[in-house]
Amino acid sequence: MKTAPIKILFISLFFLAITLSAMQEDLMVAVKSNDVTKVEQTLQLNANVGKQDNDGFTPLIYAICNFRETEILYKAVADSDNLAIVKLLLTNKADVNNSGKTGSTPLIWATQFGSPAVVELLLTNEANVNEKNSSGHGSLTCAVKRYCSSVIKEKEQSEIVHTLLQHPSIEIGEIKKALNQSITKKFKGFPEKKQINKKMLQELQETFETKAIIKIKKVAMVALIPTGMLLGIIINFWS
């Protein structure tokens, strides 16, 4: 007689697990198909926004890149449905810096396969602009590399680079990497014979120089403070 409640409990847990698994699958399918209504419905049922699939991709990464089965669509995802899904996932506490098993954060994916609007949205939600992927490249370097190697999305990609450069937290080391990347790729050339435009190269150089000057001034100030204190002590001693 005592085993009956235990059996009921196990059966209930079994069906709960099946329901949760189906719900998670529904969320992934809805995201991949850009079905805003379905995404909203599954989120209302508390689907796990941080759940990874077998390839290590989260719903947020799928939404950003607009995956279709195993194919990445090399097109902008600035359409309202796709952007709305990214907003929905972020509103429902999707981790903006979770790279899953992919080795790249959502921002890094967005700088290569997303749109300027998605990049701005991620940064507004505190995406780490300096986070590196498994190859040691940050979002700016990846964005520049994508621009140099592709014959599509030229205008949008340049806007993404501009947005990243304007971010106050972007590190000088990352700008230097991106600058080296752009110069190297420009002179090496690609089968598509794509070259980085002069405006972007100039902006990279100017931002790097500005950051370098600010860094030098900070180092100089740190060095001058102890010197000033020592001079004050000497003056007080002799006065």
Provide a descriptive summary of the structure in words.
- With 239 residues, this protein is mostly helical.
- The chain has 2 domains: 6-102, Alpha Horseshoe (Serine Threonine Protein Phosphatase 5, Tetratricopeptide repeat), CATH 1.25.40; 129-239.
- The chain contains 10 helices and 2 strands; from the N terminus they run αααββααααααα.
- It has a two-stranded antiparallel ribbon.
- Helix 3 runs antiparallel to helix 4, helix 3 runs parallel beside helix 5 and helix 5 (106-113) runs parallel beside helix 7.
Task: Please tag this protein with its features.
two-stranded antiparallel sheet; 10 helices; Serine Threonine Protein Phosphatase 5, Tetratricopeptide repeat; 239 residues; 66% helix; mainly alpha; elongated; 2 domains
Outline the fold blueprint.
Layout: H1 3-32, H2 36-44, H3 59-65, E1 67-68, E2 71-72, H4 80-91, H5 106-113, H6 116-124, H7 139-149, H8 154-166, H9 172-188, H10 198-238
Antiparallel strand pairs: 1-2
Helix pairs in contact: 1-2, 1-3, 2-4, 3-4, 3-5, 5-6, 5-7, 7-8, 7-9, 8-10, 9-10
Q: For the largest beta sheet, what order do the strands appear in spatially? A: 1-2
User: Total number of β-strand segments?
Assistant: 2
Structural classification: mainly alpha
Please, how many helices? 10
The percent range for strand residues is under 5%
> What is the mean predicted local confidence, pLDDT?
76
| Rg over C-alpha atoms, rounded to the nearest angstrom | 24 Å
Low-confidence stretches: 9-23, 67-78
What share of the residues lie within helices? 55-70%
Major sheet details: 2 strands, antiparallel
Topology order in helix (H) and strand (E) letters:
HHHEEHHHHHHH
User: How many structural domains in the coordinates?
Assistant: 2
Instruction: Report, as a whole number of angstroms, the end-to-end distance.
Output: 97 Å
Shape by Cα distribution: elongated
